[in-house]
Amino acid sequence: MLTQCCLICSCRPLQSCNREKKKWQKVKLADLQIDQLTGMKKHANLTRAEIKTLPDNNTHMFILPSKEDINTQLTDKHRTVNEIIKELEVRTRLEFAKRHLKDSQTMRNKIIWSVGNQY
After folding, report:
1. DSSP string across 26-67
2. The total number of structural domains that make up the chain
3. Which of 14, 42, 73, 81 has the fewest CB atoms within 10 Å, measured from its CB?
4. Does 95 reside within a domain?
5. Nearest 5°: phi and psi at 25?
6. 105 near 29, Cβ under 8 Å?
């Protein structure tokens, strides 16, 4: 028996439908990870801005490393987050392209099959 999802995503058996659901879950997970990493970038930028406003001879107890060390760490974090985001976006686009190609092939086959059965 086909579920409503099977009718929407035009997959045949339930196993195929589950594979489609897993693919979309991976895409959604990647989107959530990208959102989380973007938040980390914003936090690092805000921290950098706050550190820049402090005077150079800062003697606050809660800031042990120098401003240069903090700035270097934030720059490294920013670079790492950008690389991870880029990788996730490429992987997500590839997954979407594969799914779109498979859907297109399925629709093409259905059209060919329906035209072939008319004659």
Report:
1. HHHHHHHHHHHHHHHHHHHHHHHHHHHHS-TT---TT--S-H
2. 1
3. 42
4. yes
5. -65, -40
6. no
